[in-house]
Amino acid sequence: MHGYWSLVIFTLLGQAAAGMLILSFFSRTADTSRAKAWAACILLGVGALASLEHLSDPTVSFYTITNVGTSWLSREILFVGLFGAGLLLWLITLNAWARRLAAILGLAFVYVMSRVYIIPTEPFWNSLLTFWSFLSTAFLLGASLLLLLDELGAKVEDLEGIVSIPRRIEGVDVAVAFRENPSGTYKISVRTGEKANASAICENFGGGGHVRAAGCNVPGPLEHAKELLLEAVRKELTGA
After folding, report:
1. What angle is formed at CA 129 by the lines to CA 123 and CA 132, rounded to 5 degrees?
2. For residues 113 and 136, what is the distance between their CA atoms, to the nearest angstrom?
3. Overall pTM > 0.70
4. Under 8 Å CB-to-CB from 191, ≥6 apart: which residues?
5. CA-to-CA distance for 53 and 184, rounded, in angstroms?
6. Which of 96, 120, 214, 239 has the most CB atoms less than 10 A away?
7. Phi (first) and psi of residue 189, to 5 degrees
8. For residue range 19-62, what is the model confidence (pLDDT) as tens digits?
9. 24-43 as b/e, with b when 16 or more CB fall inside 10 Å?
C-alpha cells in the first residue's frame, strides 16, 4: 500500500463504521445481534491498521497523539481510540445506551476527521462544507451496510417456526426453544403433543398460551433456565 491510498481506506472505512452507529442512534431498543457491532469494529480496525502504512515508522505511531492539545491530527487518533472503545462496549453489552454512546463518539470522530482537512492553505476545503461532505459520506456508506446486513441477517420472526421442528420426530411430545433477551432473561417457546399441556408448563413462570403452543420468560443464566424448564416439563409429563 503506497502514497495516500492508506488514508483513503482509513477515511472511508472509518466513515462507514461511524455512519452505521449514527444512523442507529434513534432506535429505541438494543440490537440483539452482534453482526452489526462486529462489522463496525472490523471496519474501524482495518481502517486504523491501513492508516499506519502512511507513517514512515508505524512502531512509533503512539507518539502522534502527544499534540492532542494543538493538533487535529492528534485529536483524530484520540477519537479513533474513543470510538473504538465505544464500539467494543456495544459489542460486549449489546445495550441500547452503549450503542448510543458509540454513535455520539462516532459523530465526534467524523467531525474531528474532517477538521484535519479544513486548513487555510486549501481554500476549497477550508469551510464546514468539508465536515458536511464527510458526514454525508458516512450516512451513505453506513446506510448501505446496514441495509446489506439486514438483508443477509436472520430476523427474530425467522426463528419462530424452529421450535416446531423437533415435534415432527416420532416419539417427541414436548419441544422447547430458548432465545436470550437483551435483559439476560430467556424467552421460551413450548410446543407439545397430546401427552402434555404447553400452557400448563409455561404458567409455572407466569406465561401461558394454548394447550399445544405457549410461551414464557425465564431468568438466566442459560443452564439455570434449562433446569427450570426441564423440571416443569418433567412434572407435566409424569403428573407429579
Report:
1. 150
2. 13
3. no
4. 163, 164, 167, 174, 175, 176, 198, 212, 213
5. 42
6. 214
7. -115, 130
8. 999 998 876 655 656 788 889 999 999 988 877 776 655 555 55
9. beeeeebbeeeebbebbbeb
